[in-house]
């Protein structure tokens, strides 16, 4: 997934909204008696953003990372302050384009690994204009509905 038009957005902390939070969890198996709404409130910003100055959002485009749970139009939360390490999912800039891929180090080589068998890994070579722009920390997705 290479995308020149990747749009980065800054979190809007001044208009953050706290909403009710069911801290006991919602059963995905058998239903349980109604949970108490004890008034716990959270702001998603406080969950998703650990470093305000280094966090950005971007919309995913394409299907190369579906195996990692990243689908087209998902919102990616990116922290530029985190150290890129083997296995992390990163926003990378390569030869004038942005892409989201898993970082893979092998035998002194760096690869950008897609999570879809329809795509080949990208080996980073010295001649590439390359940088790891940030590390993806969360994915926000809209659930599809049956029609």
UniProtKB/TrEMBL annotation:
Keyword terms of this UniProt record: Autocatalytic cleavage, DNA damage, DNA repair, Hydrolase, SOS response
CDD domains xref list: S24_LexA-like (cd06529)
Domain of life according to the entry: Bacteria
Claim: Zinc-finger is one of the keywords in the record: no
Sequence ranges assigned to domain Peptidase S24/S26A/S26B/S26C in this UniProt record: 20-136
Stored Pfam families: Peptidase_S24 (PF00717)
InterPro entries named in the record: LexA-like (IPR039418), LexA/Signal_pep-like_sf (IPR036286), LexA_repressor (IPR050077), Peptidase_S24_LexA (IPR006197), Peptidase_S24_S26A/B/C (IPR015927)
PANTHER family cross-referenced by the UniProt entry: LEXA REPRESSOR, LEXA REPRESSOR-RELATED
Family the entry assigns: Belongs to the peptidase S24 family.
Protein name per Swiss-Prot or TrEMBL: LexA family protein
Organism: Flavobacterium jumunjinense
Organismal lineage: Bacteria, Pseudomonadati, Bacteroidota, Flavobacteriia, Flavobacteriales
